[in-house]
Write a structure and sequence with these properties.
It holds the Pfam family zf-dskA_traR. By secondary structure, the chain is mainly α. It contains 3 helices and 2 strands; from the N terminus they run E-E-H-H-H. The two termini are 32 Å apart.
């Protein structure tokens, strides 16, 4: 079976590979965080969260760059809302 000329099995393979890579990155980040993260570090990339951002966005876990990435990703996956 094909969708837009691409075999469905190929689409599924790429989706599975992408999901596995994302899981591996997440696990690697979590293991690294257990060892090195301070409360002022981004839980995604490990970079320091600017003090001003920590003051303005209480309880934030992400630096501004990662927060922007997640906001854009959420916007795209929620149909542009």
């Amino acid at each position: 079976m094909e969708i837009w000329g691409i075999a469905v099995s190929d689409i599924v393979d790429v989706a599975n590979q992408t999901a596995e890579e994302a899981i591996a990155r997440t696990l690697a980040n979590r293991v690294q965080r257990v060892v090195t993260v301070r409360p002022i570090d981004c839980t995604e990339c490990g970079d320091p969260i600017e003090e001003k951002r920590r003051e303005v966005v209480a309880g934030t876990e992400h630096c501004a760059e990662c927060a922007k990435y997640f906001a854009e990703r959420d916007r795209l996956f929620n149909g542009g809302r």
